[in-house]
Specification:
Blueprint (H helix, E strand, L loop, with lengths): L1 E6 L2 H6 L4 E6 L9 H12 L9 E5 L8 E6 L5 H16 L5 E6 L5 H15 L8 H4 L7 E6 L6 H22 L7 H11 L5 E6 L1 H7 L2 H7 L7 E8 L8 E5 L1 E5 L19 H16 L4 E11 L11 E3 L5 E3 L7 H13 L5 E6 L3 H7 L4 E4 L3 H13 L4 E3 L17 E2 L7 H10 L7 E5 L5 E2 L5 E2 L4 H11 L26
Parallel strand pairs: 1-6, 2-4, 2-5, 5-6, 9-11, 9-14, 10-11, 13-17, 14-18, 15-16
Antiparallel strand pairs: 3-4, 7-8, 8-11, 12-13, 15-18, 19-20
Helix pairs in contact: 3-4, 4-6, 6-10, 6-15, 7-10, 9-11, 10-15, 11-14, 13-15
Amino acid sequence: MDFELTSLRLDEAAARKTPALVVLVADGFQPEGDALSALVRRATGSGDFKTEAGGLLATYGAEGVAAERVVLAGVGDGSPARVRKAVAAAIGALRGGPAQAVTLCFAQVPDGAAVYAATLAVADACYVYTATKGKDGKKDAPKLARATLGVPDADAVRGDFQQALGTARGVELAREWANRPANHATPTMLAEAAQALARLPRIGCEVLGPKEVAKLGMGAFQAVAQGSAQELRFIVLRYAGAAKGEAPVVLVGKGITFDTGGISIKPAPEMDEMKFDMGGAASVLGVFRALAELKPAINVVGLIPACENMPDGRALKPGDVVTSLSGQTIEVLNTDAEGRLVLCDALTYAERLKPRTVIDIATLTGACVVALGGVRSGLFAPGDALAEALLAAGERALDPCWRLPLDDEYAEGLKTHFADVANVAGRLAGSVTAAKFLQRFAGAFDWAHLDIAGTAWKSGAAKGATGRPVGLLVQYLLGQAGGRTAAARKGAAKPAGKGGAKRARA
Ligand code: BES
Ligand code: MN
Ligand code: ZN
């Protein structure tokens, strides 16, 4: 999808020759003398269109309007969340049709956050998975290939637009890899995807295989991988946007390319969805794609422990005790609690990078799906400053999370007679006990854990990866860079953060 941002008043939008025009109309719209204003006035007057969020009217050959198709979409109070919904619906109405280009314009002055939301919503609505479709399936790809965003003053919102574009690239990559089935997204293939990213400027990649991982002593990670015919990979991605000596933010993504549960095998229904169990890893790949685009002045390292969790003659068994990279021994009471086993070794590895912050991202617990559903990711962080920064980034990026507790009492159930720690506690507060397990390996740095089990993908009719939490993480990292970009490009570096434009009139 090609995107463009341009200054466009409503009368100019009416005169614009384009196959499709989407007009976003907020409550309290004041019609002027142009043809689009007249159309909105007529459509609201007749009751065919409401400016309330969800209002949608598709018309053809409207009088005085140069565009062939016009879609009016109500955005209610004009908030970014409403804009996102309206754009998704409007693009949905056009997607199946012949239009190859669309112009979106705002009937009222939008703020940067609304432009960000609209841009990401277009990109999201136009993504179609085709990687493993046959010839006929590939034809499903949408014809829409160009989107122009028209706002009264393009320069006022250009920073937000650019951030949305970079983020959209990352979200798309994350969705694509998470969607691919496990036989098309093996640990080796994920490593190749990371190596392909390293062809972009400022990105480097190093991949460790079974021998190196054994030599390091990542006994917990190895134990999960030992039941699979697929070799494990430990992926290290680096983005160098700041001076070499500057401490990096480290992102750790759970990369279980398929989670059968292992010997503690999962029931058959919906087990296919465990191909999404590398959603954390996919989001790390996506963030690096976005970093290459947005070039913030910050150093970031991505760590991805990637393997399958399979039952096998060689597989890890309940009761086995393994020795993690930290030296702590772990009694594996349930082989289905494998995410924390691969993550704990990656967290210990992160120590040697002398990080300023470590954030792990994992489809870790079914309990988190029960607690928060698909709306908010679970956030765990002992430090308030990091927790607040991630909460704020999530709100801003429309990729929200919710903080859950880390009281030490929750760790009681992890005690065992046979090792330093067990990998599961009781049935209660499963997301919290998983986080408490991880916390034992994250004592040496400022740390947060995002449980994305409910947000990384959708089930049912709309089954597919969401690309979350790429938006949240990119927003957070841009904030950490303080709006500075990696190298002074021609002229002054443009701030990559949100612009200071005023909120749309209600
Ligand atoms: N990948 C799953 C978590 C998961 C389950 C995510 C369902 C999304 C939907 C994870 O590896 C897992 O199996 N966790 C277990 C932990 C339990 C054995 C303590 C779970 O949540 O059931
Ligand atoms: Mn599992
Ligand atoms: Zn898992």
